[in-house]
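Title: Prediction job returns without error message
Component: structure pipeline
Severity: low
Priority: P3
Assignee: unassigned

Description:
Job completed but the reporter wants confirmation the result is attached to the right record. Sequence as submitted:
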Amino acid sequence: MIELLESTSTNLYQATTLVELLKYRAATQSDRIGFIFLTDGEMDEVRLSYGALDQQARAIANQLQGRKGERALLLYPPSLEYICALFGCFYAGVVAVPAYPPRRNSNLLRLQSIIADAQASVILTTSALLENIQKFAANSIITTDHLIPNFYSTEEVNITPETLAFLQYTSGSTGNPKGVMLTHENLLHNSKIIHHCFEHTANSRCVIWLPPYHDMGLIGGILQPFYGGFPVILMSPVHFLQKPIRWLQTISRYQATTSGAPNFAYQLCLRKIKPEQLKTLDLSSWDVAFVGAEPIQAKTLENFAETFASCGFRSEAFYPCYGLAEATLFVSGGKKSKPVVVETIETPALAKNKVILSSKNSAHPQKIVSCGQVKFDYNLEIVQPESLTACSEGEIGEIWISGASVTQGYWKKTELTQQTFKAYLSTGEGPFLRTGDLGFIKNNELFVTGRLKEVIIIRGRNYYPQDIEQTVQKISSDFRLGCGAAFGVELEGEERLVIVQEVERTALKTLDINNTIEKIKRAISEHHQLQVYEVIFLKPGTIPKTTSGKIKRYACREQYLENRLDAINDSEFSSPNQANNSSEQTDQLIQWLRQYASENINSRLIDERRCIPPHIVLDFGNKGLLGMQVPNEYGGLGLNNVDTLKVLEQLGAIDTTLALFVGLNNILGIRPILKFGSNTLKSELLPQLATGRELAAFALTEPSAGSNPQAIQSSASNSLDGWLLNGTKIWSGSAAWAGAINVFVKHPETGGISAFVVRRGTPGLRQGPEALTMGMRGMVQNTVYLNDVLVEKDSLLGEAGQGLNVAQDAMMYGRLAIAAASIGGMKRCAQLMLRYSQRRVISTGHLINNPFILSRLNELTAGITAIETLVNRIAKLLDKGEFIPAEAYTVCKTAGAEFFWKAADNLVQILGGRGYIETNFAPHILRDARVLRIFEGPTETLNFFLGSRVVNNSQELEQLMSQTLGAPEVYQRLKEAAEQIREFTSVDCFSSLQVRQWVSIQVGELASFAILWAALKGLNSTSQEIKRSLNWTQLNFEQKLTQALSQTPNDAVVRSVNQTTDLIYSYIESIGEIEQSFSGEDTEVDQLLQKYDSRSIREVQVKVSPQDYKEICFKSLSNLNPSQSTERLQDELIEWLSRKLKIPVHQIDPTHAFADYGMDSVMAVELAQDLEEKLGLSQPLEATIAWNFPTIKSLAQYLSHLTTGTQQETVKTQEKQPQKVKSTLNNLDLLSEVEMAQLLAQELATTKGRLGQ
């Protein structure tokens, strides 16, 4: 532990330079420990006294003799060596340039730009980093970690208060960095202010994990303790991010008085530190918990104080402050040990730079935390940036400051320095530093509200939009040059990154939106370590610009928040002029269908014969029904979304089988070719498919891959002329009839799944047996065999390895089509029920007059209005180019299918015995309706997905309900209800994971009605039908909630998996096990339902509870073979990503990189730490491990090797090695280089022997 200093005086030695102050401390306090660095972030200490710092700094200065005024780049990991190098530069009169050392696979552009801008003549670093630095820097390089202080004498250099101490490169873009010039006077003056405001004494103690390369970590964390003569305990930022508890444990262990960080660090502690860990902490000594560098959230401070109160933490310890590099560091702060000042204002007004205090009943209140008052000789003004006049109290303007801590300007940037540091009010008062930040003064307290300048601050770091925009611009030639913008928006208390980009007019039809967004996210993650919140593509010429042609990023941000950007999306793949004739064509087509159905369609015969007659297929083709959205130039109708869905609704009313047949051809068959096919492929196939001369099919499902496409086993291998496809597909609709089949296979070359079009007659393509389905019997659902099927490069859909994007696009639109067909089916059911009930006379009169029948009919019509409203609104939004999130498609599918099934069931029931007769339509309708609850995702699975999106605060869902559908109050009601369900739900026999799943399922059911409610309410319609349906939907929502908040009979009898299994197994005693066998047809019972499971051991699913699953994954990996271990680790990595990024598991492709999903640097460190803990690794993983492997799968393979192969090989090796070698391996540090070489040669020989076995 550190001994307390005897002196409690606040009187400080009044040095004029940092050099003078170090000499004083070395002469009077030589043995006193000034710095402690925790090399492991916990217990392993390295200490540095003031005397040792003086000696080491002199040794480094000796190496820099004759370089006074030159710039030295400091490239060190967080360490005591870095501090010594910094003071070595001070002693030598060399201007230090601290910078982040390069990490593996990092972009070196910014570092190289800093070297060039600073004109650094020398680089100081450590031996460990030397080789890496030599690869990119031609400068003179000095390693300082092996200098011997006693051997050097330093020539005294004249240092004055005006001498430059270092350049702080925290501002400026990557290509044009700005180095802030700090003198010794700036640093001492700001240190004095901090010392006074924090009320530091010689007995203070500080704990700092912040990066030591810029203001808060360097000046606040290193120079402030040095100035005050009290110790600081330092650790690497990575160690904090890996385990946030380390920060608080260090404060507790050393009884620190001062520590702090940006807002996100306190949030991270709340998220990562477990309740049981609180008992080990004593935070009673912590009396200054400073927070700054990014927007401060009142909720974060409240939650942190409440959570850690039991550890002795006091909310009065919080010290919000404001500062910036251009003012050295500190500008304003509160009063120590006083409550934080918070104001509650109106959010909409704040967005327009106005301050309106919120009332108690405000709909949009926002708490804003004061950054205290300005101190000492600072002068602060709030200024209108256009008129340069001072603002009155409570008026928002730009923050201007002046004082001795304001720095000298930007290195070698005279004009920019003049603009930023030499500002004058209209009265002539000045000069001032223009901070670029916006704020207001109330009761002498400074409140920072935003930024005038366009820098993006995320987790305390500055990012410049032009850097991000340049990265985006390089991704595609389809982007309009210089027509993109990057900006930050605050969501859920955090700054998020949004990118907007104009697209060339020629690319509107061909741009692969999903794939391009993935590329953008990956590039931003790799080059900037940032997670992209949203990417929006804009129509040409619509991005806001100045009269001189510059992008107005602030206007882009404003339009984004108000949902006014002129965006395009993936629905815009057809020519705009096609919409003009769409409606007229549709009306004619629907009239033709009605007439044709009455004369040429016999649904019962289609159903009984299990075949659609050829004349219907031919006639539909001739009328364009099989190519509704195909552009005219390819022979299609070119219908828009609204009209396409109208046709599908009409078909659903005529015959659900025919609706599915037409929908499959248009959506699963043609859409992937139209959107993702090459021009050659489209020219060859679309004219055939659009006119029905050939049909198209979709082959995704396999025996072991149903709802999980990642389990696909079919594969593509390289061939001289393209690829060879091998595998088996099942239940492929229309495949036996199709001339073109969209096939999805694993693609080892890319590590992903690729999509190909396979033509009828291709050698190796073989049609297998047909599955005898319960409904939709007129369509063929058959197996497809792929045996060395050769496909050429033009047959590829989209990019290699990106096939799931193709499938996802088609299936999302397919869900909308199912809803449209269901609406038609529901209306047909209503017609038949009405027709029967009007004619059927019972003892009480006509059946229509029976309250029960009337209730059923009105319930049905209310449901029809609700789902029809949602489908129509979505279709219109798609035609406008709006983005529609997955949640909307999901509700269309689940609500449409469930309502239709209920209507079909009620139809059979109302018809009584007649409903059971095949000639009376009802049985056929019932059978067809049933599959829609399964097709394109079972209702239960989709409800689970929908509920998890609500529980995990999906921004897309909030935007859909609050902005797109215009019903924010419904969204809030849904969130409140979800929280009620979460708090209420508890089932004794469920594990915590099962409880979370159960909550998601119930919330998902509720969300379906909430989204329908929002669609109706957002119309603000006076229609009585809309109002009636609105009331019905709202009542259903509340009823579902009531059910969820009360114990149901099912809850009362629910048992565990094992209990349930045992009970059902016991039925064998009463009924035996019955399994019928047939002959003459392909009627083999699915293996998963057979009495004896004939699958291989590897395919058998072990019965295990979700709670035990994680233990098996991580604790039993050593018992698995590498392939099994890899699969389980891969699943865990995907689950981790899903939880952190709040995206569904099924949207995460293990053949993609982590960067594709926007992982940032903080999350990467969290991943490494979580893996270390769960796998029980003895050696730490690299913090950058997420970027060191090209795909999620490859990382899983590496981890599998660590947890299985390495352990097994170590045992084998030790068994083979003689005892002498084993002993030697335990004493490597005692070996000479020759002995080490000999041992390495022996080990390599052993390894080769193993590989040869």
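Comment from assignee: result matches the submitted record. The longest strand covers residues 479-491.
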